[in-house]
Amino acid sequence: MDLQALALNKTIEASHPEILKMLSEKGRNIFFPKLGILAQSAQARGKKINATIGEAREDDGTPMHLEELDYNIKLPSHNVYTYAPSYGKPEIRDKWKELIYKKNPSLGKTVFSNPIATNGLTHGLSVTGYLFADKSDTIVLSDLYWENYDLIFSNAFGAAIKTFRLFNKGGFDIKSLAKSLSEIENEKIILLLNFPNNPSGYTPLTDEV
Predict the structure, then answer these.
(1) pLDDT for residue 141 is more than 70
(2) What is the pLDDT of residue 77?
(3) 160 C-beta neighbours (distance < 10 Å), count
(4) Three-state secondary structure call for residue 42
(5) Would you say residue 53 has pLDDT above 70?
(6) Cα dihedral angle (193, 194, 196, 200), rounded to 10 degrees?
(7) Quick check: helix, strand or coil at residue 53?
(8) Which residue intervals of 45-185 are DSSP H helices?
(9) Domain ranges for the chain
(10) Tens of pLDDT along 191-206?
């Protein structure tokens, strides 16, 4: 295991040991590399010659691009042609978090990190599978779901998928969900609730929640 992953696991264990137990083997081995080329890039920032960035720049430091494209794009060039940060643009993530608090006042002063941008729902599910799904794990989800769930969780990460019946007499089938959960003997269970459900569009009523 990489030393950076070991250090990260120690940090997680010290603050939230239950989270470390949830992580898959891949999840415990993954880390965001802060050494090597990234460290060198930080050291080179602001220097007269910086060959670490991997982007073509004009002499004035602006991104090199076809000027004809500017007629159709009404944003500053540095917001369009440069690499985006891995987690998403910080100012957008800040605003996103602000809106989460605004739209969910029941959160109160609950502390959580800034949201992380992904390339859509399937990518988000894939990242989640990488972090949490092992071959010994079972993922419980409704019987109405897209085939990409099989590709992500079973084909890619080897986890088993167990479904429960989503509908009973037009409403959410809570008994079927409870039965599916009770039949799993693993200590760890991953429950994936997709609401509004895709593809059915159903969202549980307040009393069902």
Answers:
(1) yes
(2) 83
(3) 15
(4) helix
(5) no
(6) -110
(7) coil
(8) 90-103, 121-132, 148-149, 174-182
(9) 37-79, 87-117, 125-191
(10) 999 899 999 999 999 9
pLDDT tens for each residue of 32-48? 887 776 667 667 677 77
Of these ranges, 18-27, 31-40, 114-123, the one predicted with the greatest mean pLDDT is: 18-27
pLDDT at 18: 95
DSSP 55: S
Q: What is the DSSP letter of 156?
A: I
Other CB atoms within a 10 A radius of the CB of residue 106 amount to 5
CB neighbours of residue 121 within 10 Å: 12
Strands (E), the chain: 138-142, 160-164, 167-168, 171-172, 189-191
Q: Which residues of 179-207 are buried (b: 16+ CB within 10 A; e: fewer)?
A: ebeeeeeeeeebeeebeebeeeebeeeee
Three-class SS state of 204: coil
Please state the pTM of the whole predicted model: 0.80
Both tokens assigned to 23: 């992580």
Tokens for 196?
């509004």
* Strands 189-191 and 160-164, bridge-based pairing: unpaired
